[in-house]
Amino acid sequence: xxxxxxxxxxxxxxxxxxxxxxxxxxxxxxxxxxxxxxxxxxxxxxxxxxxxxxxxxxxxxxxxxxxxxxxxxxxxxxxxxxxxxxxxxxxxxxxxxxxxxxxxxxxxxxxxxxxxxxxxxxxxxxxxxxxxxxxxxxxxxxxxxxxxxxxxxxxxxxxxxxxxxxxxxxxxxxxxxxxxxxxxxxxxxxxxxxx
Length: 195
Prior knowledge:
The protein is 78% helix and 0% strand. The chain is an all-alpha fold.
C-alpha cells in the first residue's frame, strides 16, 4: 500500500469517514477474525477486538500521538493492536494461548503497544475508583493534583489547614485501598513484576 493510500486511510479514520472505515474493515477483518478464532476466541470477540483497535487508532490519531513514520503500515499497526488487546483479554480470562507465528512483528513495536494498553488499563482503574469517592474527597484531591498548597486548599474548601491535611490523607488512603482491593490491580501488579 502506498504512503498516499495510508495517509487517506488515517485521515478517513480520524475524520470518522464511514466509507473509509468500511473499506478498511472489509480488507482487514477476516485476518483479525482468523487470529482471534485460532486463539480461543469467537466471532463476537473478533468484532469487539477489531472495534476496540479502531478506537485506539482513532484516539491516537486525534491526540496526535500515532507515529506512523517508523515504516510500519496501518495494517501492521492494526494487527499489533488487535493482538495485544486480545492477549490482554485472554490474560484476564487466564487462558493465554497465542500462536506467535500468526503475526510476526517488531517486538519493540508490540511491546510499546502492550505498554500503552496497560497504561490505559491503569488509568481506567484509577478513574473508576476515583469517581467512586465522595464528592468532598474528589474535590479535595483534584485541588491537590492541580498543585494547590494546603493553605490554598483550606481557603477554597473552608476547612482549617490541619483538617485539610488530615482529609487529604484520608482521601488518598481510601483511594489507594479501593484500588488495591480491585482484582484488576493485582493482575496489573503481576504483569509489572514479570517485566
